[in-house]
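<instruction>
Derive structure tokens from the sequence
<entry> Chain with its tokenised backbone below:
===
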Amino acid sequence: MSLPPLYALRAFESAARLGSFSHAAKHLNVTPGAISRHIRTLEHYFDCVLFVRKGPKVDITQAGCRLAAQLEEGFRHLEQACHAFRRHQQDIRLKAPSTLTMRWLLNTLRLFREHNTLPRVQVSSVWMDTDTVDFTKEPYDCAILLGKGQYGQHVESHLLFDEWLIPVCAPDLVAQAQQDLFTCELIHPSPDGRDWRRWLKRTGAFPGMNVTRGMVFDTLEQGNMAAASGHGVSMGDLLLSQDAIHSGMLALLFSQAIATGDSYYFVCPEGTLTHKNSLQLYQYLKACVPTGIPEGVECLGAETGM
């Protein structure tokens, strides 16, 4: 059924809480007559007496007490919801995959905070085998996801940068691995080994290599850390690995990088990017995307059907 007027419910709740029509009128900045009319509207709507009027004095009925108790709780929840919404207008809750967070996003957000007091960005680093987000069920305002830019109805995505894969290892292991990759320990940064299979297929290198052998991790970040510690050769993201390569933690093993066909996207509910805070964050992230292919690296575009 339809609800009674909200202003009538508010007038009744105030009168019940304050025990007086005149006090409620003063609290809501209306006349006592207006309070009385609002309450009569509710009494007609609910077909019961909420107040017994005795001249200038009014006494709430038992039915009125029951309604008042529930309305007080309901208005408290409404006030809390509005307060939280107003507070979150200055906050952005961002979901992002773990490797991207560790390799690029944390430093980028630190710089963002140095230049912008608001909005406050609350990042959640989440492991996802397949990057997804459901804004109707998850507590996020936006996300950065790896994929092909299709994340469901009423969701928009904006390209940040492409994914390029290339083998990486500790600098001390480069000579051995280049001489005989077949004897090196492979590190798989995905449980299904898809990253190694993609690179081998696209480059045509090392035909017959058994990609089922080696160590398996959940993320590129874990695989890169194992490789940096000298435990084998992993597949790395060329752009996200730049800092580790420049610092000497990792080294490029070969000169060919392959595009997977996937890219990192800034993802948000449809129409959200018109909000100044979301637009401000997206524009800053876009301006800070990792760029620049190292000298001597050949980038091979994604193969159809990969």
Summary: The radius of gyration is 30 Å. The first helix runs from residue 6 to 18.
